[in-house]
Design a protein that fits this description.
The complex is a heterodimer of chains A (503) and B (319). Chain A contains 23 helices and four strands. Chain A has 503 residues and is mostly helical. Chain A has three domains: 35 residues; 193 residues, no CATH class; 228 residues, MetI-like fold. In chain A, strand 3 and strand 4 form a beta hairpin. Chain B has twelve helices and two strands. In chain B, strand 1 and strand 2 form a beta hairpin. Classes of the chains: A mainly alpha (503), B mainly alpha (319).
Chain lengths: 503, 319
């Protein structure tokens, strides 16, 4: 039908116009695909420094953040630039030194903060920082001491000196001996008392490496360096938090993902995903366990048992539930439900994963109901008729014929509901207590992935590691929903069609 | 599979035949359980609505609806929030409705249902509909604010920060992307209700495909497009997560005066009052009242959409 040629009198001109408009429609309809690609790209782009930002990008990232510091403190400009140059220097050194080559380029833009010499003999360096005990983390547990494989050490060393030299109280000696091996000794006066510093894994590693103490020439303390660092620290307190973030950057990557503490705002930020994962899983499972049976049974009711009037009233009500803003559900859970549940069950924390999960099921029920109802009504009447003709009762038909043949659709509904609960933000933010605890009890407060983004994104500095980690969480949520959606689209639908058609 | 299932039924049926009481009991219970589940859902909806209405109706006054918040948001009204929500949803529909309608027209009129393009667009729409709203917020921040906005700033007036920060335009565009699938689905459904005979007749009379769409398909599915628009507005008015960091403001005494300014939003206002305010207990009446206003807004929109759609379905069945 569409191949018909337009009548002659329309003329060529209008046909060209039509083609243009048609191609415009075609083009615009690809917006949703473009949107998906853009979302994928930009969310990952902001998260990428975590993966790729170890050597080169750290420097560039820090110099951009240094630019922002110029606004906040007057003297910070020179300091930051100096630290930036020193960073590059250190990277070069670390790269070359470990391999044993003779080059160690050193310079200091800000002044005589450090002393550097080159290849043939020794390189000395001392940084004394009297304020380090303030900035040095105290309450931390010791990071894992396990020394990783050698190539990993090399990688880890690159960012480490960056953090150390600026704020932590360390005393470093770089000495290139005749053989060309670089030693690095770190003296940390606070290590034994306070249980270590953020970069201890790196320090330990370097100690292990500097076992051959042949060529080191003692320190030569530099009095001007003290004054210099003093003014630095005074002028830019912000810089310190930045440094501690960089220090955490030195922690290895598996620590980031599988650490068991989520503590993004502290001297030594910790980005362990485990408590968030447990929290999200807990609240999602509770919402599915409560919501899914309810929604599936209700869908079975409308498709099999319900008289027409009940069907006609139930559908708009479920649509109203779907249209309920999640912030309203969250408000209801926070103000009304939490109090009632606590009175009834008598648990300790008012806001917990149980309250959050039940509230979240209100958001999940409409999705599961709608999709499984579609699947149930798609079951052909011939099956029902055959079942009834064989003498089965209504409930036997419903539970033994209709439900089993629609089970892929119901499964799809539960998966999509799971995805919805997994990414639900406002209810989780308002009703779950937002404490990153990894306990098994359903009556403990939890913090979900989505709520973490929602709560913390407003307070982070653009471009620092916390920011990147939040984007990484977003990227994970994206991948999760994308995968579950693809699963439903390409696997479950096919099975559903096959099953219903009896092939 | 299905055949074996029915065979099972018949076997069990003969076994159970003698104990008809048991059968009837189980049957009644099965019907009762499903009915109970449906009842429970209805009960949940009514509990939420009624508790919000009871908590909030006393505080809905003319002053509350027309004044700005006062005393550190402890008193006063919510007019900036209402205004901001309305403006934001209008800007959002300016983006979502045309784009969504065009996509729906392409999917139902141009694309072959089996073609790879149509299928990938459909998959993209489904995915877009199920991506968590907070991810849209991140995208809005990363793309609109950090990328587009900063680029505009660096081209037009370097050194200043006009577009490269959260504002109402970026929030609306983020929300537009979020609500686009809603529009697509409901418009497509509406377009499908236009009988095929009408199209054929139009084409047979010598109209081009575009003329058919403009004169036959769109007028025939106008109520569906309207439904999609209303549903999108309702969704947009209720969502808070995408605007958390793309434009919503904690507190603004005046209404937004330019596209590059921030705005207050009803849902965000509820969230702020309920969780971030310095004295949560004191503002509970305000919270209830704000929730009631938001609920009234979205419910009115939703009800209109539901009614429109049921009329549409009735029409398509009779046609």
């Amino acid at each position: 039908m569409s191949n018909q040629k337009p009548p002659l009198q329309l003329g060529k001109k209008s046909r060209i116009g039509e083609t243009i408009i048609e191609s415009l429609i075609r083009g615009l309809s690809f917006i949703s695909i473009i949107a998906i690609v853009l979302i994928f790209f930009f969310v990952f782009k902001e998260a990428s420094p975590i993966f790729f930002g170890k050597s080169e990008k750290v420097v560039t990232r820090d110099s951009t953040s240094a630019a922002t510091h110029n606004e906040s403190s007057k003297t910070a400009g020179t300091i930051d630039s100096s630290s930036a140059t020193m960073k590059t220097v250190e990277t070069i050194k670390a790269k070359n030194g470990i391999k044993g080559t003779e080059v160690t380029v050193k310079m200091d833009a800000a002044g005589n903060k450090k002393k550097f010499t080159t290849s043939g003999g020794t390189v000395e360096q001392e940084v004394y920082d009297p304020f380090a005990d303030d900035s040095a983390p105290k309450k931390d547990t010791t990071p894992p001491k396990a020394t990783p494989a050698k190539p990993k050490e090399i990688k880890k060393e690159e960012p480490k000196p960056i953090a150390k030299k600026e704020s932590s109280s360390t005393n470093q000696k770089y000495s290139t001996t005749n053989g060309g091996s670089v030693e690095q000794e770190v003296y940390d006066p606070f290590a034994d008392e306070k249980g270590g510093i953020a970069v201890i894994p790196g320090q330990k590693d370097s100690k292990v490496k500097s076992s051959s103490d042949t060529g080191s020439v003692g320190d030569s303390s530099d009095p001007t360096a003290i004054a210099q660092t003093k003014s630095q620290i005074d002028s830019s307190a912000l810089q310190e938090s930045k440094d501690s973030l960089d220090r955490a950057h030195a922690g290895d990557f598996s620590n980031l993902l599988f650490g068991d503490t989520w503590q993004p705002v502290s001297n030594v930020p910790k980005f362990g995903f485990l408590p968030l994962f447990i929290g999200t899983l807990k609240v999602t499972l509770i919402s599915i366990m409560f919501g899914a049976p309810l929604a599936i049974l209700a869908a079975l009711f409308t498709s099999t048992f319900a008289p027409k009037w009940a069907r006609e009233t139930l559908k708009p009500i479920i649509e109203l539930l779907a249209g309920l803003p999640s912030v309203v559900v969250g408000f209801f859970a926070l103000i009304v439900m939490a109090t009632i549940f606590q009175d009834l069950l008598g648990y300790q924390y008012r806001l917990n994963s149980f309250v959050g999960g039940i509230a979240m099921s209100f958001a999940v029920i409409p999705i599961i109901y709608t999709i499984s109802e579609d699947a149930l009504t798609a079951v052909p009447n011939s099956l029902r008729d055959a079942s009834t003709a064989l003498g089965a009762t209504k409930w036997q038909t419903a539970f033994k014929v209709v439900l089993p043949s629609a089970i892929p659709g119901v499964f799809a509904a539960v998966i999509l509901g799971f995805g919805r609960a997994f990414g639900e933000t406002m209810i989780a933010l308002m009703a779950t207590g937002n404490a990153a605890m990894s306990t098994a009890s359903p009556f403990d407060p939890i913090r979900t992935f989505a709520a973490t983004i929602g709560a913390e994104m407003a307070e982070v500095v653009f471009g620092d590691q916390h920011y990147n980690v939040l984007f990484l969480i977003g990227a994970m949520l994206f991948v999760f929903t994308f995968t579950s959606n693809a699963l439903v689209e390409f696997y479950v639908r096919k099975r559903l069609i096959r099953r219903i058609q009896g092939k | 599979m299905s055949v074996s299932a029915s065979l099972d039924v018949s076997k069990e049926n003969s076994l159970l035949g003698s104990t008809s009481l048991k059968r009837r009991l189980i049957g009644g219970m099965a019907g009762g359980i499903t009915g109970f589940a449906a009842m429970l859902i209805v009960l949940i909806v009514f509990t939420i609505v009624i508790s919000v209405v009871i908590g909030g109706y006393k505080n809905i006054t003319w002053e509350f609806l027309t004044e700005a918040p006062k005393e550190g948001m402890m008193e006063g009204g919510i007019f900036p929030a209402i205004f901001g929500t309305v403006i934001m949803t209008m800007l959002m529909s300016l983006m979502a409705v045309p784009l969504g309608t065009v996509t729906a027209i392409y999917l139902s009129e141009f694309a072959k249902p089996t073609s790879i393009f149509a299928r990938s667009i459909r998959f993209a729409v489904n995915t877009l509909a199920s991506i968590p709203s907070i991810v849209f917020g991140l995208f809005g921040l990363g793309f609109f604010v950090q990328f587009v906005g900063s680029s505009i700033d660096s081209v037009t007036n370097p050194g200043t920060l006009v577009w490269g920060q959260p504002n109402i335009l970026w929030a609306s565009m983020t929300m537009g992307l979020l609500t686009m699938p809603v529009v697509i689905v409901s418009v497509e459904e509406a377009i499908r209700t236009v009988p095929k005979e009408w199209r054929d007749a139009s084409l047979a009379l010598g109209a081009t495909r575009l003329q058919t769409i403009r004169k036959i398909v769109i007028p025939g599915s106008l109520s569906g497009i309207l439904t999609g628009m209303i549903l999108a507005i309702s969704r947009g008015a209720g969502e808070v997560a995408p605007i958390l960091f793309t434009g919503a403001a904690f507190f603004l005494p005046q209404i937004p005066h330019a596209l590059s300014s921030q705005f207050m939003h009803l849902g965000y206002h509820i969230y702020i009052l309920a969780t971030q305010s310095s004295n949560v207990e004191k503002t509970i009446p305000l919270q209830y009242a704000t929730t009631l206003v938001l609920l009234a807004l979205t419910f009115t929109l939703n009800l209109t959409a539901v009614i429109l759609r049921s009329r549409l379905r009735g029409k398509s069945q009779s046609a």
